[in-house]
């Protein structure tokens, strides 16, 4: 069958939620189109294998050279296959701060205040702690406490407390500010991606067609209406038709790329690539925002943290066997086990720095091999002022887009990151974490602004949260309206992190799933 009521482009966090919710009641035919595979393999489903995710599950994009990072090219991993980035991420369950969503509404995203989105977060969530004013217990996305956090991660929290920094047992509850262990999107000791939550339970239903290995080349627009998609599978092309419309959910990089390949975007840029202009939309691919992040690492003599040593390797071998037999033990780690949210200035409405603590030495996104044992900590700017773009590098849908986050091009971001790095080092120097006597792998005079800034520019990069390239709003320039309908094209919705008018103060996976939940109801209402 090549005709459906709804076609969903992209089986990532938001796309899985949207497709699953639209298909579950059997009232409409839904086709989910995904360029990658099923991701139904041990290396994806086992949390501790996160550093060994196969290349087929990760787009592994690079940025254009970044002026704010001394001309370096940044790394942008993005999930490929069902589950999208929820199939390769650190599984940290964070929604952001209430301030973020209230700010969205103030910017014209009517109906997206914190009070508006909270019910959708609760609807999606199956928190093993149970339901309360902030959490749901019956949703498809399983959320649980970590089974076996490393002792080093607990020491990080104790060190923060020794500096009179608050503890937080629930970063998604009444108070985000503080330090603690993260909850994770896992179930029974395995990664619980959006696909496992929303798509796999419906596999085999007559009204739900799941097509993997299907690269979308463009959205078909007939007389101003999205009428289907052209896909490439191997060497063949197919046309799929949509009676009700199309939901584009290919992520902050993929969604603007597909829109532009379809003739929807900045007219001059489209003409540069010989693409006929269907709708001149300047904001498509604009307003890219991402969390700029700096990682410090310390080497320890203690083998408490994970590490590359004979003893560390033997410990991991035993842990792999335990996990295959029982789904318990240290292979359930999310690596970014502990963290916190901190205000660089007390007058801020919400924390502006987030920490991710890893009980292992992390260099170059985990791609660099580091001998020995130790720990790392990320510090990221939660609400950056720097802006970038996503543009076409080629008319070929299989080619990577040109990604320019514009990192640290606004000096205000450096001021915040500098403060965040200094606090991170204060925590590492406080007991009991300081009892490890860790050796800083990248020492710097923290009192010297120029020296610290130089080190940050030489090593900082993304912490994997790009948003904003198909901005939602009520103004004429917005790409989608508050019902996520594309402006100027009937029957087309965009639903993923690209629609966020501002980056949330935290990880973006849970908010993306919430967006997928909401678009499903918007589409149901539109087609009723």
Question: Can you offer a commentary on this structure?
Answer:
By secondary structure, this protein is of the alpha/beta class. It has two domains: 1-118 and 184-290 and 387-404 and 465-528, FAD/NAD(P)-binding domain (3-Layer(bba) Sandwich), CATH 3.50.50; 147-181 and 292-381 and 409-459, Cholesterol Oxidase, domain 2 (2-Layer Sandwich), CATH 3.30.410. Helices cover 26% and strands 23% of the residues. It has twelve helices and 25 strands. It has helices at 13-23, 42-45, 98-106, 114-124, 151-162, 194-199, 251-261, 267-272, 310-326, 411-428, 449-459, 509-527, and strands at 3-9, 30-33, 61-66, 72-76, 125-127, 141-143, 178-181, 186-187, 190-191, 208-211, 215-222, 225-233, 236-248, 264-265, 279-280, 292-300, 307-308, 338-342, 353-358, 372-381, 389-391, 402-404, 439-440, 461-462, 492-494. A hairpin with a 2-residue loop joins strand 11 (215-222) and strand 12 (225-233). Helix 4 packs across helix 12 (509-527). The longest helix is centred in the C-terminal third of the chain and has 19 residues, at 509-527. The chain is globular and about 70 Å long. The two termini are 23 Å apart. The mean pLDDT is 97.
